[in-house]
Amino acid sequence: MGEDHQIAFLLRESAQPDPERRAAALKGLGRIGRAEHARVLAGAADDPDPAVRAAAAQGLGRLGVPEAGEEALPLLVGDADPGVRRRASVAAARLGPGGPALTRAFARLLADPDHHVRITALDGLSALGVPGDVTALAALLGDPDPAVRGRARTLLGGPRPRR
Question: Which of 25, 64, 67, 101 could cross-link with 14 by S-S, CB 3.0 to 4.6 Å?
Fold first, then answer.
C-alpha cells in the first residue's frame, strides 16, 4: 500500500466510532501525514476519549507543524487526564515557541500532581526561553523528584548542587 493509500485509510479510521481505532489512526497520521492533515489531529482535541486526545497531541508533535497546534495544544496541555497533559506538553515542547497561551499552559502545569507532567512543563518553559511563574518555580525546589528540582533550579538560574 502506498503512502497516499495509507493516509486515506488513516483518515477514514480517524472518524470511526471505536476510540482505539481513532487513536491508532491519529498516531499514524502523526507519523506519515503531511501538513494538511494537521487539522484532523487538531480537531480531535475535543474527542470524548482521553486516549484519542492523547494520540492527537502525540500526532501533532510528530507531524511537526507548529501553527497546527497553536489552538489545540494549549487546550490539551490543560486536559483533565494526566496522560493527555503529558503527551500534549511533550508535543508543545517539541514544536517550539508557541506564544503566550502555551506559556500560561506550561506555567499551570508546574503544580501538576504528575511528576512527569511537571518535568515536561519545565522542559517546555525552557524550550520557550521563559521562566514562567517564579513563585511556582521556587516551590519546585522542594519537589520530591530530583529531576523536577534540577530543572526548576536551572530555570531560576541557580547553582547546580554538588554530588
Answer: 25
Q: Concatenated DSSP letters for 112-153?
A: -SSHHHHHHHHHHHHHHT----HHHHHHGGG-SSHHHHHHHH
Q: Name the band, by pLDDT with cuts 50, 70 and 90, for residue 133.
A: confident
- Quick one: 159 exposed, middle or buried, by C-beta within 10 A (0-12, 13-18, 19+)? exposed
Unique residue bearing C-alpha cell 538560574: 157
Q: pLDDT by residue (tens digit) across 72-105? A: 888 898 899 989 998 998 888 787 656 777 788 8
Name the pTM for this structure: 0.81
pLDDT score at 100 = 78
Spell out a b/e string for 90-109, using b for 16 or more CB atoms within 10 Å of the CB, else e: bbbbbbeebeeebbebbbbb
